[in-house]
Amino acid sequence: MSKPPAAAGGVIHDATGRTRGEVTIGEHPAETVDVPDGVTANGHHDAAEDGGVVSGEGTTPAPGAGWRSRVADVLDFARRQLDGDSEVDRFGFDPEFNSRVLMPIARMLYQQWFQIRMQGLAHVPDAGPALVVANHSGTLPIDALMLQAGLHDEHPAGRNLRLLGADLVYEIPLLAPLARKGGHTRASRANAHALLRSGELVGVFPEGFKGIGKPFSDRYQLRRFGRGGFAATAIRARVPIVPCAIVGAEEIYPLIGNAPALAQVLKLPYFPITPLFPWLGPLGAVPLPSRWIIEFCPPVPTSDYEPGSENDPAVLADLSDRVRGTIQRKLGGLLAERGPAFA
Asked: What pairing do the DSSP bridges indicate for beta strands 201-204 and 272-273?
């Protein structure tokens, strides 16, 4: 069966040679994704594939068939990963690997370590392209993973968030392939536009390293949103912007200092010093179990902008400031709603 790329996670290159249909997003053609039988749009497997016999009354497992089916399924998944037969899109996103390997790891943090409450999911469209714009914080970009996990698990359509990442991510040998398999893509206007044209839900953090590297004394005070690149992207693609406020990440690694000399040697934007790191070694890298609220705000439409507005600095500054102001006001409200970070 075929699913729209926004649900199934991208424009897929099928190693088996299966054919594809086409759907139209706006006036632009977009390919559909062939999802293997028994796999839902976000990579989960249907219960009917778990060794059961399907009837009009439901599914009745055959004796002893359930565990054999699960083991065979795991072995088949491992074989396809090792043989390079898994289905990926042009950016390397592997929806099945993401749902079966990466998201369960993120889910443990989301559900069992942090106390995360997600609100405003109705503002995130069930299908089609949109640009999620969020504040960034926490010394390490764990907020990006939690945002991705929450949408994957809690959104009614189980949407895959395609995050745009900094160049540094793709210069680290082990991290780069995992990031690509998880749907992360090097941040650029061309990549963002290609994903949106394919009907994807795209996530950006306009503060960049300035957001995650700010001192604890400046927590929840937004940094400058770059030069309006996300605004230009949204206007050009004529997609809505969904502002998103994240409260909780600032407290996981309270940044009390920076070692610029070490950062320069390691070619990092900064080297964080927290109350626990580097003093406790690897143990100091364990994030503190703070309480989180992630809330999506009403979408900001861009379809009414005149052609060429994406090249007007005044228009971009105005739209960028509107989105930034929305997130900053929401952060203030969520901090009051949450109360103490570790209660």
From this structure: unpaired
| 333 has pLDDT over 50 | yes
- The H or E element containing residue 107 is helix 103-108
Using CA atoms, how far apart are residues 84 and 342, in angstroms rounded to an integer? 44
Which residues make Cβ contacts (< 8 Å) with residue 83, sequence separation at least 6? none
Q: Tell me what the mean pLDDT of segment 95-110 comes to.
A: 93
Instruction: Give strand pairing partners of 245.
Output: 295
| Span 159-172, average pLDDT | 88
Closest by alpha carbon to 178, among 72, 277, 88, 261?
88
Q: Which residue has the tokens 């390691």?
A: 266
Q: What is the DSSP string of 44-64?
A: PBPGGGSSEEEETTEEEEPTT
Q: Could you identify the residue written with the tokens 């943090």?
A: 109
Decide: helix, strand or coil at residue 188: coil
Measured distance between the N- and C-terminal CA atoms of the chain, rounded to whole angstroms? 47
User: Is pLDDT above 90 for 78?
Assistant: no
What the block records as the tokens of 331 is 């952060």
pLDDT tens, residue by residue, 244-296: 999 999 998 888 877 778 777 777 776 778 888 878 888 878 899 999 999 99
Predicted TM-score (pTM) above 0.85: no
Residue 277 and residue 272: Cα distance in Å, rounded? 8
Comparing CA positions, the residue from 250, 258, 248, 257 lying closest to residue 219 is 250
